[in-house]
Write a structure and sequence with these properties.
By secondary structure, the protein is of the alpha/beta class. The protein has helices spanning 15-37, 42-152, 154-172, 212-218, 223-248, 265-274, 276-284, 292-313, 315-368, 376-386, and strands at 4-8, 11-14, 178-180, 192-195, 202-206, 254-261, 287-290. The strands form two sheets. It has a five-stranded mixed β-sheet with strand order 3-4-5-6-7, with helices on both faces. It has a two-stranded antiparallel ribbon with strand order 1-2. α1 (15-37) packs antiparallel against α2, α3 packs parallel to α8 and α4 runs antiparallel to α5.
Length: 387
């Protein structure tokens, strides 16, 4: 109904507008007829011809309007058919588009499902790695807890320090240079004694280091707790130093120097940083506090001393071996001289053999040249002299 039928001037006229115009025109004509009928009777005769003419024109207009209406009806039917075909085309196009969209959505869902499956597979692998790492972490946690239990128990902690000290000493010294749990004359049993060459006295190494006060010092939450823990450290180390000096310093049996082993480098660092007075007090008592690294260095020095002592002990054997070696060298020189004399005699013999061969060759040449008869008289005497 909104399709443009005609264009009047520059104004397009649609079918609906044409119908409304036609209806308006009809109403106008009817009004005009009514006015004409209701007119004056005087003009009725005069206007009969005019009315007939106008009626004819009206009929013509109505015929044109009917034709226009039929034309509009045909166009509307055509438009309906076109719209129907366009609607079917639109439905088909929409169906095709929906099928394409469905296919793309299906492909996208399939690709998404595949990607999700791959991601889940990788996630499972990573979860497996995380589970393995968690298992190892649990094992490490158990080991740390076990180490904590060891360090919390005095006997276990002593065994831990004893084990570290024994491994360092055992790796650096020969078995004859040390002994563990050695019994002194006063019935004391130090953790380790070391025998130095050239001295019958033994050096004592103690591995029973007090650790509770250091744990409290590190766990202190305020200055008061830290000061109390520090005083406890000084008290415990002072008592331990006095015990070592009283039990392990025996004149004529032990060295004038003892070693206190600290099984942790961090504790040794805290001891030297915060408790230098305790370290100096131990030094004045002839007790050296060492960490695992310092004990390794001391063992290496002792190892060099033991090696040098063994070299000095074996010096006479080395001298005997050198004397025997010199005798062997003298015999070798004598035999070389004899061999040289044999070579010299053989060279002289070879020289004589070469001279005789030369003479034999010359005589053979003369025989070959038939000069023997002519020179027989002159060559006889020299030949005999040569023989």
């Amino acid at each position: 109904m909104d399709k443009v039928l005609i264009i009047v001037g520059d104004v397009p006229v649609t079918a609906l507008q044409a119908l409304f115009g036609f209806a308006g025109l009809c109403l106008l004509l009817l009004g005009w007829v009514a006015l004409s009928v209701l007119g004056s009777n005087r003009r009725r005769a005069l206007e009969a011809a005019v009315s007939a003419e106008r009626q004819r024109e009206l009929d013509d207009k109505l015929a044109e309007m009917n034709a226009l209406n039929a034309e509009m009806t045909g166009r509307m039917q055509t438009m309906a058919e076109v719209l129907s075909s366009r609607q079917s085309d639109l439905a088909r196009l929409m169906s095709e588009r929906l099928d394409a969209v469905g296919q793309r959505v299906g492909q996208g869902l399939e690709a998404g499902a595949k990607t999700t499956t791959d991601h889940l597979a990788r996630l499972n692998e990573r979860l497996a790695v995380i589970d393995a790492a968690q298992t190892r972490l649990q094992g490490l946690t158990q080991e740390v807890v076990g180490l904590k239990d060891i360090l919390a128990n005095k006997q276990s902690r002593g065994a831990f320090g004893q084990g570290r000290m024994e491994s360092i000493v055992r790796d650096g010294l020969p078995s004859s240079a040390y002994e563990f749990q050695y019994t002194l004359s006063n019935r004391s049993r130090p953790d380790c004694i070391i025998r130095l060459p050239g001295d019958d006295r033994v050096m004592v190494v103690d591995a029973k280091f007090p650790l509770e006060a250091f744990t409290a010092f590190r766990d202190a939450r305020n200055d008061a707790e830290r000061a109390g823990a520090g005083q406890r450290i000084r008290t415990d180390l002072g008592k331990h130093t006095r015990d070592i000096a009283e039990k392990y310093f025996i004149p004529g049996e032990t060295q004038d120097l003892a070693v206190m082993f600290v099984p942790s480098e961090s504790i040794y660092a805290d001891l030297n940083e915060h408790f230098d007075d305790v370290v100096q007090k131990a030094h004045r008592a002839r007790i050296i506090i060492v960490s695992p690294s310092l004990l390794m260095m001391a063992i290496q020095v002792m190892q060099a001393i033991v090696r040098d002592a063994r070299m000095r002990e074996q010096a006479h054997q080395i001298q005997n071996e050198v004397r025997l070696l010199l005798k062997d060298v003298g015999r070798l020189q004598e035999r070389a001289s004899k061999l040289e004399a044999h070579f010299r005699q053989a060279q002289e013999d070879l020289t004589g053999i070469a001279t005789s061969a030369d003479k034999i060759g010359k005589r053979g040449e003369r025989i070959d040249q038939m000069e023997f008869a002519e020179q027989a008289a002159g060559a006889l005497a020299p030949a005999r002299a040569a023989e």
